[in-house]
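retry 2 of 3: previous attempt timed out while embedding 2-acetamido-2-deoxy-beta-D-glucopyranose. Reduced batch size to 1 and resubmitted. Inputs unchanged:
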Amino acid sequence: MLLLQSLLGVLLLWPLCSLEAARILAIFPFPGPSQYINVVPYLKALAARGHEVTSVNAFPQKKPLKNFRDIPVLEVFDNYDDIITQVSGPMNIWEENNFINEFFVDTTRAVFLNKEVQETLLPPGKDHFDLIIVEALRSDAYYGFAAHFNAPIIGVSTFGADWNIDELVGNASPLSYIPLQTTGFTDRMTYRQRLTNFVDTSIAWLNYNLVHMPVQEELYQKYLPAAAARVPLTELNRNFSLVLLNQHFSLSFPRPYVPNMIEVGGLHISHTPAPLPKDIDEFVQGSGQAGVIYFSLGSNVKSKDLPVETREKMLKTFASLPQRVLWKFEDDQLPGKPSNVFISKWFPQPDILAHPKVKLFITHGGLLSTIESIHHGKPVLGLPFFYDQFLNVERARQAGFGLGLDHKSMTQQDFQQTIQRLLKEPQFAEKAQQMSARYRDQPMSPQETAVWWTEYVLRHKGAPHMRVAGQDLNFWAYHSIDVIATLLAGALFVFILFVFLLFKLAKLAGFGHSKTKKHKKQ
Ligand SMILES: *[C@@H]1O[C@H](CO)[C@@H](O)[C@H](O)[C@H]1NC(C)=O
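retry 2 succeeded.
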């Protein structure tokens, strides 16, 4: 009986396990390293499960990997250095949107112009893929690969949802409590902040539809003409099977999602930290009771390029502390380096944050760094530079596991006192531990979740049953503007009719009255 039951169980489960190995095309050409760091473990996990992954990216594997083929697009670096310096310059919102969108147009074009892409992917019928996975980041033209290969498409957003990501699956993000990333607001906004959020989002939306989409449309028609003749881009970018978000309610704030939008915040995190390299380990072990501070500004901002005055403030502060400091510094020499500071161009960040002797993380507040510090329960001092970093640092402050400083205006005293507060007052570390416990309490790891949903889409041929009907409505119908307009018109009609009748009646009554009066007088 038991045997029969388990046999039945196996039979029932069979369709789930019988998924054939799929051919997957992944497109992640963004030249900043953190985006690819975020997704590559997920792509490798798919390869390890037997799927054949072809990955268009800017950071090819150093060693060959089974079932994993790189198409390196190193051309994307050509325009990358400018964006890092220019994006912090003064711009109004329209210019800012143009600037960001132009950058993505350049990146998208670079993908289509790449020799290997042109030779192996673009010719119709040359290759086939069962699934397309793209970085959903303002690059609509290459969503065209879904039509080109007649395959379902999955988007990965490495910074969570925004209005543009929402439109891929018809998700609703009330502007009253879901802030635009770039505003730096949290989910609790004042009236003025809500006003700003509404206006900024509307401008971004208009800019995207009026300026950006026509260019993407052109690229799509130029490089994937056969697909473009069959399916318009505006249908493709509303037909995503799944969107995976590098976000989680325990990391940011709770919010609604449609069923094919799944949170996989911390996709890159491995749950088994590796031992530290020998020299770093010795330095960390030698820190005694005081412990270690880890300082890194991430992979884009170089701390060797910080103004000398800022660096001096930091060095003086570090020299005065009983803690030891690991500083990700991109030069061999750091003049005036105190003996309690260890510099290196690279650190195994997750393994360092996992170390019990590490007490504080001084960070630029990038999303991956923020998630890692929460995962390992370490308080942060945020020194944000651009984009979502301000928001991440503000959230850390709001949640109570960190504090932020403006690296441009802070004094040495600010820096020193903030570090001491974070180390001495226990609530910061306690809050970080609590956040960590909440974040880790999930039925499957983010990576397992991502793989499971990806295979779900494969098993159910694009899983069209998850797609909300809102995706087939136009703008007016979706927002019920047509209905509201009809009701308003109806109400207006009734009101006018009422006024008209009242006027008529009054006139009639008045006329009749005076008439009778006149009549009586006679
Ligand atoms: C939308 O996606 C589904 C599932 O992948 C697919 O069957 C359908 O053809 C797509 N429609 C368009 C217009 O691309």
